[in-house]
Design goal:
The chain has 4 helices and 9 strands; from the N terminus they run E-E-E-E-E-H-E-E-E-E-H-H-H. The chain is of the alpha/beta class.
């Protein structure tokens, strides 16, 4: 039975896939749960584990942070509201835009809303998205990303890498190219309130999943929005560690040459 009072942590689950040699996926779920499942301690670039970044494992055994190109003109996004009752669509879209705006504020990226869509992200579908980021309010039966049990949503990104070999030395360039969020809409509407504030709110759920879409992973610090479960004590949108992580993967991190990446910018 799902309860909405001070849920405990959900153990972090991250799946890394390589559909072909130069593509990869990173994703993680968030849940509303009353079960007691211990969260493993996380590491971060900061002095304490208040944020954690997504890393790509490369063929030469090294790892690189996965982030969006700091010089990308804009990150386009579309929203699928099909599972939201028509009377609530305006409010849910407003909450979505508020969460995206907060990500934009902390990363300094420009996000451009391109309207609604009927697309529902599925495993293997991100390369075919009509926008760089697709946010889908859907149901567990419509996607093969797991929304089982108390899992409210999943978010993730699709990255590419290219290699260059000079004098026998190979270097790699990595960039995020697509992102997604899928939400268990019936459960969200039942458990989370609209508007901005602390606790069990749609904006906080969306902020968490969008954090994954721009390169953040779960942390064990209960003060942060990137803690693996949405709780009655969840912060308003992002807390200090979340904001530091978003800045780390944001525009200030610099340009990435994406000219030879497998996917093109859609802006």
């Amino acid at each position: 039975m799902v309860q909405s009072v001070a849920p405990a942590a959900l153990l972090r689950r991250i799946y890394m896939r390589k559909p072909i040699a130069v593509l990869g996926v990173a994703l993680a779920p968030v849940a509303l749960t009353a079960g007691v499942i211990a969260a493993a301690p996380q590491t971060a670039d900061g002095a304490i584990a208040t944020y954690k970044l997504t890393y790509a494992s490369l063929p030469n055994g090294t790892k690189q942070v996965v982030r969006w190109n700091g010089c990308q003109k804009t990150i386009t996004y579309k929203v699928n509201l099909a599972a939201v009752p028509s009377a609530q669509r305006s409010a849910v879209l407003s909450d979505t835009k508020a969460a995206v705006a907060k990500v934009a504020l902390n990363t300094k990226f420009v996000f451009t809303y391109k309207g609604t869509t009927s697309e529902v992200p599925k495993v293997g579908s991100m390369a075919r998205q009509s926008a760089e980021l697709v946010i889908a309010f859907t149901s567990p039966s419509k996607t093969n990303y797991s929304l089982a049990g108390s899992t409210l949503g999943q978010g993730g990104l699709y990255y590419g890498w290219v290699s260059r070999t000079v004098n026998g030395r190979t270097s790699y360039t990595v960039a995020a190219q697509r992102g997604f969020v899928v939400i268990d809409t019936p459960q969200m509407l039942n458990q989370a309130r609209g508007g901005t504030g602390t606790g069990l709110r749609r904006t906080n759920l969306l902020a968490h999943e969008l954090g994954h879409a721009v390169g953040l992973q779960h942390v064990s610090d209960t003060r942060q929005q990137m803690y693996p479960s949405i709780r009655t004590a969840s912060p308003t949108l992002f807390y200090t560690g979340d904001r530091a992580g978003l800045a780390k993967v944001g525009k200030a991190a610099g340009c990435i040459n994406t000219a030879y990446m497998p996917l093109k910018d859609l802006s």
